[in-house]
Amino acid sequence: MAYPLLLILLSLLHHSLSCPSTHKQSLLQFKSLVTRKNVDNSAPFFAFDSWNTSNCCNWEGVTCNLELPSKPVTELSLYGAVPLTYTAPSAAIEALFAIKTLTFLDISQNSLEGEIPAKGFENLMNLRYLDLSSNLFNGTIPLTIFQLKNLRHLNLRANSLTGVLSSAVANLSKLQVLSLNENFLSGKIPPEIGNLIELKVLSLSQNQFSGEIPQQILRLQRLQNLDLANNSLSSTIPDQIGALFNLSFLSLKMNQLSGEIPISISKIQYLQSLELNSNLLTGFVPSSIFDLKMLEIFNLGRNKLVLNNSLEISPRSSFSLLSLRACGLTGSIPAWLSNQKELDFLDLSENQLTGSIPPWLTGPQIGSLILSDNYLTGSIPSNLFNSKNLSVLDLSRNSLSGHLPENIGNASAIMILLLSSNNLTGPIPASITNIGRLLLLDLSANQLSGNSFPQFGPDTYLAYVDLSKNGFYGEMPVTFGPQIRSLALSGNKFTGPLPVELNTMQFIENLDLHDNYITGEIPIWIGQMSTISVLNLRNNKLEGPVPHTISNLSKLHVLDLSGNNLSSSIPIQMGHLEGMVDTPITYFSISDLFTFSIDLSDITIYWKGTLRGLGYQRVSTYANLDLSRNRFSGIIPIELGNLKGLKSLNMSYNMIEGGIPANLGHLGQLESLDLSHNRINGSIPHSFESLEDLTTLDLSYNRLTGRIPDKGQIASMTDIAFSNNSGLCGIQIQVRCESDNPSEVSEGDSDAKGEENSEDHWFIWVVVFGFFLGFSVAMAVSHFSGFLYPDPPRRYLRSYRQRR
Which UniProt keywords apply (predicted)? Predict the structure, then answer.
């Protein structure tokens, strides 16, 4: 009897330590729903690895209240349970509504798609924390969420929610955090939001809210973080905002707010962060703001504000971040900055500052210094590079001169070094290779020179190098390390063939070598650079054929070989460049790693007849093929008609013969086509009438014949596009084709001429009768004149034939 009794006691003890079976069943149902789309059982749903025991209180992400006899589930931390490459139905949430004891629910970052369930949240009346952020939810916010009167934290950010923010949000009277940013919510911010008097964080940024900031927000006395960024809110900032005495963080950036900054904002004595950047604010910056003792982050960049540089400003606070970008600063760099000993980030770009960079600005604490787009002169202070904290230095587009400091490598923490568009001279110091964290190096558009380049080691992280538009010469350098993604060396004096070391750059995406003196043939190994997406060899001295291996460049979507001496026929393999077959996707850009704006040099291509610079983000969506100004012969390969992602195709100034393939008219995204200055014959394909996006066309200086298609976009082209083709006819060049019926009138003239014909109908009969009468008389005269003048003089005969 003792043994069965022991089993009963153990069974009772086991059940007393386990979660309720109904809770366990709900959790397993949730797991089943979010993993249902997983057809590969090996998929890494690691969050559920421990969900295979009988007691769900021991499962990862599950917390039970062990003080209660029933051990109910009270908290679920299931963020990131679904791998990034998978999606799950939003209905999976419904399985959790049966766990009415929940106080904490976090299912963020799970790629849940669909609408948030409209029914079921009313069961979770004990819920204090709800986080559904970073999913794929669409539709409106269910009103049932606003019934959770015990809720303290509500986070729905980073979804695709639409509709308005209901006034029922006022029911959440205990709410302390409300994050709805990064959605598509619209309409006005409800004034009832002012009833949330416990609110400390209000984040509605990156939505489509409009109208004024409701005055009721000023009732939120405990507000610490106000973020209304990137909406379309109007009106000025109300003076009553000064009533938020407990405010510690205020962000109104990118709202397109207008008007002046109210002086009363300086009364917010606990304000720690003030971000008003990227709006339409005007007027002078109130100097009283600098009296705020606790202000650490102050961002006014990109408004229409003016900071009076003549005022004696003596800030009472110690800034860690200060951005006065495009604030109308004039004169020298403000001297009051010399007292800011804690300054880590300083942005004074896009102003009108003059003079030199003061020595006191190069203190050891500075981490990011952005002074671009000013009128600064003098040399770059060498003590600037003695800082071990300097990570970002942008002095681009000034008038700085002199050599690069030899101790540039002492600033070993630099990640971004942008010194383009200045008047710097001399070589690149060898010490620059000591900067092991360097990612971006832009020295373009200076007067740097030399033929000796730093040797970056195999451990460097350097990904972006731009040395274009300088005076470097000799063989092309390839010693920038193995992580290179973008290498721009254009506009220099490099000579010799393409170095074989290019083939070892495993991550290269952009190679820009235009306007140099590179010789030899395009090597066969070029086809092994499988990661290349932009290849620009324009205006060099390359010769010979294009190797067939170029078709192996599956990601290539911009190819510019113009202005060389390339010969032979255009290889049919060019029609198999996969990156031009479909619309190009946006490739990774190194600038995407950073949260602030980085102005990188443009990639220049010939676009619609002119040389244009396309930014790195824009060029990634273009497909461009330029073979112009070479010595290509033979015919246009019909395989080029496969490149349906092309936006620009240029084969002008070659020796191409034969006809235009009809399937070029199937390049539906083509905006610019230039086949001019060749020996192309035959007619213009009628398929060109389907090129709806075509805005630039040049077929001039060829041997084309026949009628120009007169439908679609091609009908609106000017005669310049077809000049010097003696056999063409059509309305575009105002040359009548032989098959045209003279009695036919154009559609544009039909209405006007119809009225004229109706009025003069009687006149036609008079003309017809007169014609036959005159013809009869003429025949009679000619008959009798033959007897009088049997042999007409030769000059009359010749004149007659000429008139014929």
Answer: Cell membrane, Glycoprotein, Kinase, Leucine-rich repeat, Membrane, Receptor, Repeat, Signal, Transferase, Transmembrane, Transmembrane helix
Tell me if 590 sits within 8 A of 570, measured CB to CB. Answer: no
Q: What is the pLDDT of residues 644-698, one digit of tens each?
A: 999 999 999 999 999 999 999 999 999 999 999 999 999 999 999 999 999 999 9
Q: Is residue 424 domain-resident?
A: no
| Cβ-Cβ contacts under 8 Å for 88 (sequence gap 6 or more) | 33, 34, 35, 36, 37, 82, 110, 111, 112, 113
Contact criterion met (CB below 8 Å) for 401 and 423: yes
**Residue of higher predicted confidence among 752 and 411:** 411
The residues with which 519 forms a beta bridge, in sequence order, are 541
**How far apart are alpha carbons 316 and 206 in whole angstroms?**
32
54, amino acid identity: S
> For 345-349, 540-544, 593-597, which range has the lowest pLDDT when averaged over its residues?
593-597
Residues paired with residue 5 on neighbouring β-strands, in sequence order: none
Model confidence at 16: pLDDT above 70: no
Q: Can you tell me the mean pLDDT for 332-340?
A: 90
pLDDT tens digits, 340-364: 989 999 999 999 999 999 988 877 7
Residue corresponding to tokens 């004696």: 312
What number of other Cβ atoms are within 10 A of residue 528's Cβ? Answer: 14
**Does some domain include residue 585?**
yes
The total of structural domains in the chain comes to 2
Q: Which of 100, 132, 162 is the last residue of a domain?
A: 162
Confirm if 253 and 299 have CB atoms less than 8 A apart.
Answer: yes
Please state the pTM of the whole predicted model.
Answer: 0.75
Asked whether 133 and 158 are in contact (CB, 8 A), the reply is: yes
> What is the DSSP secondary structure assignment for residue 206, as one 8-state letter?
S
Domain boundary among 648, 680, 704: 704
Strands (E), 440-560: 440-442, 447-450, 464-466, 471-475, 486-488, 493-496, 510-512, 517-521, 534-536, 541-544, 558-560
Q: Does 483 fall in a domain? A: no
Q: List C-alpha distances in Å: 367 to 139, 386, 416, 417, 443.
A: 43, 12, 11, 12, 20
In a domain, 650, yes or no: yes
Q: Decide: helix, strand or coil at residue 310.
A: coil
Is residue 575 a contact partner of residue 550, using CB atoms and an 8 Å limit? no
| Domain CATH number, residue 675 | 3.80.10.10
Residue 682, strand partner residues: 704
Round to whole Å and give the CA distance between 114 and 541.
57
CA distance 177 to 180: 10
One-letter identity of residue 474: G
Tokens 């003309």 belong to residue: 767
Segments forming the whole domain that contains residue 695: 520-704
| Cα separations in angstroms, 175 against 36, 207, 278, 418 | 35, 21, 30, 45
How far apart, in whole angstroms, are the C-alpha atoms of residue 172 and residue 95? Answer: 24
Q: Would you state the pLDDT for residue 469?
A: 96
What is the C-alpha separation between 683 and 533, in angstroms, rounded?
35
Alpha helix (H) residue ranges in 77-213: none
Q: Residue with structure tokens 């800034």?
A: 319
Asked if 235 and 259 touch (Cβ cutoff 8 Å), the reply is: yes
The DSSP secondary structure of 115-136, one letter per residue, reads EPPSSSGGG-TT--EEE--SSE
Q: How confident is the model at residue 38 (pLDDT cuts 50, 70, 90)?
A: low
Give the span between the Cα atoms of 722 and 161, in whole angstroms: 52
Phi and psi, residue 633, nearest 5°? -130, -170
| Cα–Cα distance measured from residue 55 to residue 797, given in angstroms and rounded to the nearest whole number | 118
